[in-house]
Write a structure and sequence with these properties.
- The structure holds two protein chains of two kinds.
- Chain A is mostly beta strands.
- Chain A has no helices and eleven strands.
- Chain A has strands spanning about 5, 10-15, 20-25, 30-35, 45-50, 55, 65-70, 75-80, 85-95, 105, 110.
- In chain A, the strands form two sheets. In chain A, strands 2, 4, 5, 6, 9, 10 and 11 form a seven-stranded mixed β-sheet that branches. Chain A has a four-stranded antiparallel β-sheet with strand order 1-3-8-7, with no helix packed on it.
- In chain A, a hairpin with a 2-residue loop joins β5 (about 45-50) and β6 (about 55).
- Chain A is globular.
- Chain B is an all-beta fold.
- In chain B, strands 2, 4, 5, 9, 10 and 11 form a six-stranded mixed β-sheet that branches. A five-stranded antiparallel β-sheet of chain B has the order 1-3-8-7-6, with no helix packed on it.
- Chain B is globular.
- The chains are: A mainly beta, B mainly beta.
């Protein structure tokens, strides 16, 4: 089983809202990733968690706040987003941090009004 | 710097073979990857190849790797309409001395005509 589950699949939020994206994997992977993908573009790395600790933050604005409560779960908390933050947010995991195959979830399509 | 280049579009007829090409820059990449993305969906790992291999075959998929020219290709035999999607080539970047963050090409949109 190589499944990474993301919820919700779609999210519409206003610029003053607070919302969270959730990602779960039960493959025993020790690294989890958040990517952002704009339309007709490749995914861009946002954050990497290695062994439940934030190891990479690709200069992401503070209105995006990641959290890794345990080795199976990754959240992305959203606050005061801008319309240009509308995108597909993809979660991925790999067995070893920054090495080997990354498996992706189906993504959350976010629209900021 | 690290860069992955792909042609943006490919159109084939159902039943034909499709070949999607990719060039990459990081010769220290341990693995190279092909991901498939259908409209509105996430990325599906199609296949990957270890850098010391020249070829990998998996059912209808054949991956060829030319390390000297830093060229990777994906051949899909007997292409079906269900193969219509965007195909991303990816290499492993070098992040602070660690290999493994993925550097994606812009993606090749494969259209399969009946």
């Amino acid at each position: 089983d190589t499944e990474v589950t993301q919820t919700p699949k779609h999210l519409v939020m206003g610029m003053t809202n607070k919302k969270s994206l959730k990602c779960e994997q039960h493959m025993g992977h020790r690294a989890m990733y958040w990517y952002k993908q704009k339309a007709k573009k490749p995914p861009e790395l946002m954050f990497v968690y290695s062994y439940e600790k934030l190891s990479i933050n690709e200069s992401v604005p503070s209105r995006f706040s990641p959290e890794c409560p345990n080795s199976s779960l990754l959240n992305l908390h959203l606050h005061a987003l801008q319309p240009e933050d509308s995108a597909l947010y993809l979660c991925a995991s790999s067995q070893v941090p920054l090495a080997g195959v990354q498996y992706f979830g189906a993504g959350t399509r976010l629209s900021v009004l | 710097g690290e860069d992955v280049e792909q042609s943006l579009f490919l159109s084939v007829r159902e039943g034909d073979s499709s070949v999607i090409n990719c060039t990459y820059t990081d010769s220290s990449s341990t693995y190279l990857y092909w991901y498939k993305q259908e409209p509105g969906a996430g990325l599906q790992l199609l296949t990957y190849i270890f850098s010391n291999m020249d070829m990998k075959q998996d059912q209808r998929l054949t991956v060829l790797l030319n390390k000297k020219d830093k060229h990777l290709s994906l051949r899909i035999a007997d292409t079906q309409t269900g193969d219509s999607a965007i195909y991303f080539c990816a290499e492993e970047g070098n992040y602070g001395g660690s290999q493994g963050n993925l550097i994606f090409g812009k993606g090749t949109k494969l259209s399969v005509k009946p």
